[in-house]
């Protein structure tokens, strides 16, 4: 799961285990405001809320629970903390009937739920949250499990071929050669700067102007940065060395408002940044390549009719 920063994911896991931001901060030895800020930054990156009340009981949203489950699967399948006390076993009354003497009534067997593994970048999961919930509700014999590590076509291909995933969504700039997939939708790549920056005040921004302006970027290991860099390269945008590399969106926003440079984003993150005060989307004099979101299905999908059904349902 290489899109959000490891620090933010660790704090999210610690907060799930602790059950509140205050206890999480005490366990980590940091301030509550830092915990809440990292959680808010992570939610901005993902495009959906993780907790209903992060400053109170820190109850996981349905999307937050799915994300936590995906994280535990990536961490040696550790069980998801429920934040609920385990009831103690009741003591047996003195006059209880011995088990051997009581009639045994066999409980009806419940058929095991069929698991479908959906691999996708976390922001794409947020796009499908309602559809996945509806599909599970209508098909009680099916459980959908997430794998949030996939970002690229190569990662999707590996996940499907190894049997780690049944359906994979990934970022691309065009249809990958030699890999059967279908186009889902596109997300425009936008550039942002502080409202007072000269690029933000210009009627149109050229490639030459961008080539003379520092860029703010996500960290090098971030999967979203790879596709953004590829799109900028395809759009023939020459960028200066990054002035700031950070997965903390609050650092990025603060630097933009201070006029430090420009920042490229797409998807839910771009929409959130575009709504913020003191930030403006740049009016470019040339189009940038859009980021495609593509779907691929494992070759063995015919053995699982529910896989094809879910893949089609997500396109409705």
Task: Please describe what this structure looks like.
The chain has 316 residues and is α/β, with parallel strands linked by helices. It folds into three domains: 56 residues, Winged helix-like DNA-binding domain superfamily/Winged helix DNA-binding domain (Arc Repressor Mutant, subunit A), CATH 1.10.10; 94 residues, Periplasmic binding protein-like II (D-Maltodextrin-Binding Protein, domain 2), CATH 3.40.190; 101 residues, Periplasmic binding protein-like II (D-Maltodextrin-Binding Protein, domain 2), CATH 3.40.190. Helices cover 39% and strands 15% of the residues. It contains twelve helices and ten strands. The strands form two sheets. The protein has a five-stranded mixed β-sheet, sandwiched between helices. A five-stranded mixed β-sheet has the order 7-6-8-5-9. Helix 5 links the parallel strand 1 and strand 2. Helix 1 packs across helix 2, helix 1 packs across helix 3 and helix 2 crosses helix 3. It is globular, with a radius of gyration of 23 Å. About 9% of the residues have low confidence.
